[in-house]
From TrEMBL:
GO molecular function terms attached to this record: acyltransferase activity
InterPro entries in the cross-refs: SpoVAD, SpoVAD_sf, Thiolase-like
Signal peptide location: none
Organism: Anaerosacchariphilus hominis
Protein name in UniProt: Stage V sporulation protein AD
Gene3D superfamilies: Stage V sporulation protein AD
Length: 340
């Protein structure tokens, strides 16, 4: 099989492996359905820091250190030291990342894919390992409810009413160490996403903004690899929520693909819609990252699932462009994760 697949996909000839994963989540996330699966739950929303932004940086540093420590504890010859770091967040100039990973002293590739960032990080990290440019890399991302609301919407003290289409930004961080051996899950393929804009201007309906991009990437992936939805145990999007999920299933059906039986969404999985007031579900860079680390990846590692299409989704929302009346484009990156 060729490395270059179809119009925009990649097939990894020597699939890099996910050798360790770490999830650090906030208290609200810890009270949800996946709470018992997270490595750490931080009950203090400030994480002992002075600002929301510093708190997010602290969560990212903890997840990174935990993932690397897990990799060091693996039996056998062990995983080589991490050489490069691929990370990003939602804040301007990636300040949660730059201040969070500064003490790690690792060369950094700063990434911005909005809430799809962990997909971009895993994809680029896998390309780096397969290309022989590093024996081990770290893929990382984070988000925080307080810092995201402060930057993109309203001060928390404002107390504005949230519509039912709104999602709740996940507080937490997810980290993954990739290497050429040592894991029970491997990245066998990827489909980088394109920017897709259906003209949606509602910043409180991220699902509607991102669903067209998710459809575009999923359909491109299936076409490039010549596969059908049933070739996957699960097709998991990042944070479309209940509103975006319905739109995605309708859009893919129009393209000739029925993904309703395989589709799951991290934004729906992470919160309890009955017990937790999160409206459409969860969102933020950490939503798909911590859900992958704590819930999805173990299903692949155990062999319960053989193959998953992991499709983190991102709304490319800017306060500048939004205040100037522009729409909110979306992007989605697809990563194929299989059992070793």
């Amino acid at each position: 099989m060729d490395t270059i697949m179809g119009k925009q996909s990649i097939c990894f000839q020597r699939p890099p492996q996910i050798v360790s994963a770490a999830s650090v989540a906030g208290q609200k996330e810890g009270e949800g359905p996946l709470g018992a699966l997270f490595d750490e739950i931080e009950k203090d929303p400030m994480a002992g820091q002075a600002t929301w932004e510093e708190a997010e940086s602290a969560l990212q540093k903890r997840a990174a250190l935990l993932a690397m420590e897990k990799a060091r504890r693996l039996p056998g010859p062990g995983v080589p030291p991490v050489r490069y770091l691929f990370s990003g967040d939602l804040l301007g100039q990636l300040i949660a990342t730059s201040f969070g990973v500064m003490d790690l002293k690792l060369p950094l590739f700063g990434l911005y894919g909005a809430c799809s960032t962990i997909g971009e990080a895993l994809m680029l990290g896998a390309m780096t390992v397969q290309g022989g440019y590093s024996e081990a890399v770290l893929a990382l991302t984070s988000s925080h409810f307080g810092s995201a609301e402060k930057q993109f919407r309203f001060p928390l003290g404002y107390g504005g009413q949230r519509p039912k289409s709104a999602t709740w930004t996940v507080t937490g961080s997810g980290a993954f160490v990739l290497s050429d051996s040592g894991g029970h899950a491997k990245i066998t393929g990827a489909t980088p996403g394109r920017v897709v804009d259906y003209g949606v201007k509602d910043s409180m309906n991220m699902g509607a903004c991102m669903a067209p991009a998710a459809c575009d990437t999923i359909c491109a992936h299936l076409e490039d690899f010549g596969r059908k939805p049933e070739d996957y145990d699960a097709i998991v999007t990042g944070d479309l929520g209940t509103v975006g999920q319905k739109i995605l299933i309708d859009l893919t059906a129009e393209r000739g693909y029925d993904i309703s039986a395989q589709h799951q969404d991290c934004g729906i999985l992470i919160f309890d819609p009955e017990a937790q007031d999160t409206h459409s579900g969860g969102s933020g860079c950490a939503c798909s990252a911590v859900t992958l680390a704590a819930y999805l990846l173990p299903k692949i590692e155990s062999g319960e699932w053989k193959r998953m299409l992991f499709v983190p989704t991102g709304a490319l929302l800017s306060t500048v462009s939004f205040n100037e009346g522009q729409s909110v484009p979306g992007i989605a990156h697809a990563v194929v994760i299989e059992h070793c």
